[in-house]
Amino acid sequence: MAPPPDAGTVDAGSGALPRVPAARTAPPASAPGPAPVTPTRHVAVDPAEAEEFVRLFHTENPGAGPVEPRVAAVREEIARTGTYVHTGAELEFGARVAWRSSARCIGRLYWRSLHLRDRRHVTEPDEVAAECVGHLREATRKGRIRSTITVFAPDGPSGRGPRIWNEQLIRYAGYRAGGRVLGDPRTAGFTDTARTLGWTPPSPMGRFDVLPLVLSGGGEHVKDGPQVHEIPADAVLEVPLTHPDHAWFADLDLRWHALPVISNMRLDIGGISYPAAPFNGWYMATEIAARNLADADRYDMLAEVAEAMGLDTSSDRTLWRDRAAVELTAAVQHSFDEAGVSLADHHGESRRFLRFVEKEEAAGRKCPVDWSWIVPPISGGLTPVFHRYYDEPTDTGPMFRLDDQAVARAGGCPV
Ligand code: ARG
To answer: Residue spans with biased composition (Low complexity) (predicted)?
Structure first.
């Protein structure tokens, strides 16, 4: 069985996130000027969707009390206001189930431990920025990473929630210069936009400059236009990369940030859509080593590593790329371990994932899985997740979704 054709050209290996084909993240060559703000899911909540969610919540949480009064109250609230307000417990459960249903995430065994920061009252861009920074600090915990989600105001009949333009809260800038990119080519469009909006890169510019947050407010702040907020350096934990056996590896001057925080997927629960709901887990080494630092359209480091290893790079058949990718992965694991930063490896995480699948089956639930995302980008067949089929991804129930507008914004194309 082969993964789909885009599997080798898209981002990420293990995250709770879609690997978006690079071509779709960049604005089209003929990108028109800023499009007018298009309302997304502003319409009234579908009562049937709300009821289905409330029933699921009560079925899985028998201690929450009788379901019928809650269903009646929700239906009444929707009839009166066009929407309803989740209880704190419903929101927490909905976010956890959205993680549990993320077909592309290998780390779902611990879905019940997702920590909720309920910030549904927040719409103002300065406050959104401060809460995003608060998320980084609370989730990082000096390296003892905690899976965390911050939920901002929803879209609703009476107004929009805020938007976070960044695809992740922490990403490195990519500066276009002379047909090349300094830094991460993936963020070149977004970096252009941040600069157009007034961001000044550090001087001199480097390969690992943390991008600012770009945020649009919700509610009465919708009209204000996007704002740029620098992230304080002490909120971003980074790990310089060294190799357990090769001293020269440190001279490559590579690093990566500890926390992957997906910030442009909307969280849909029971008919309510939260457009800004950044969430994080912790990294699996191959995401950094075999994709971010290795992909030809990212940091493209394999040739440099192979040469430093003294490998013969004259032909693919010497397997220099494969060997370099393995050593890069060893370096990432070693460096994160030394720094005391949570990081999974693809062998352990694959085993844990199959335990998750078994538990879901034992609970009588479908377990949606996207094979091409779950199988790690190196040594696929050496992990047990490779050797079987799974339930197809579904599109119902609480879910994280990536809409086209969010993709365009993260690619630097304002919508
Ligand atoms: N693959 C993405 C990246 O390299 C991160 C996706 C989320 N990953 C995770 N382990 N939760 O930045």
So the answer is: 16-28
What digits encode the pLDDT tens for the residues 208-242? 999 999 999 999 999 999 999 999 999 999 999 99
Q: Which residues fall within 8 angstroms of residue 186, CB to CB, at 6 or more apart?
A: 11, 22, 25, 171, 174, 297, 298
Q: Helices (H) and strands (E) in the chain — how many of each?
A: 12, 14
Please compute, for residue 393, the number of CA atoms within 13 A of its CA located in the half-sphere on the CB side: 17
Three-state SS for 231-283 is CCHHHCCEEECCCCCCHHHHHHCCEEECCCEECCCEEEECCEEECCCCEECCC
272-274 and 266-269: which strand pairing?
Answer: antiparallel
**Which residue's CA lies nearest to atom 10 of ligand 1?**
283
Q: How far apart are CA 14 and CA 37, in angstroms?
A: 32
- For residue 291, indicate whether it is catalytic: no
pLDDT, tens digit, for every residue of 380-397? 999 999 999 999 998 899
Q: What stretch of H or E contains 176?
A: strand 174-177
**Residue nearest atom 9 in ligand 1 by C-alpha distance:** 15
Ligand 1: residues within 6 Å at CB?
Answer: 11-12, 14-17, 107, 168, 260, 262, 281-284, 287, 292
CA nearest ligand 1 atom 6, residue: 15
Neighbours of 382 (CB within 10 A): 11
Q: What angle do CA 9, 171, 204 make, to 5 degrees?
A: 115
Q: Which atom of ligand 1 is nearest to the CA of 19?
A: 1
C-beta neighbour count of 251 within 10 angstroms:
10
- Distance of CA 287 from the midpoint of ligand 1 (Å): 6
Q: Is 282 assigned a catalytic role?
A: yes
Indicate the DSSP class of residue 363: T
- Looking at per-residue confidence, does 26 or 367 come out higher? 367
Of the listed 99, 111, 256, 282, which one is catalytic?
A: 282
Listed in sequence order, the residues at least 6 apart from 202 whose beta carbon sits closer than 8 Å to its beta carbon are 209
Supply 55's token pair.
Answer: 């029933």
Q: How far is the centre of ligand 1, averaged over its atoms, from the C-alpha of 76 (Å)?
A: 40
Q: Is 163 a catalytic residue?
A: no
Is 365 one of the annotated active-site residues of the chain? no
What percent of the chain has a predicted confidence (pLDDT) above 90? 87
Which residue has a Cα nearest atom 3 of ligand 1?
12
Confidence of residue 8 (pLDDT cuts 50, 70, 90): very low
Average pLDDT, the chain: 91
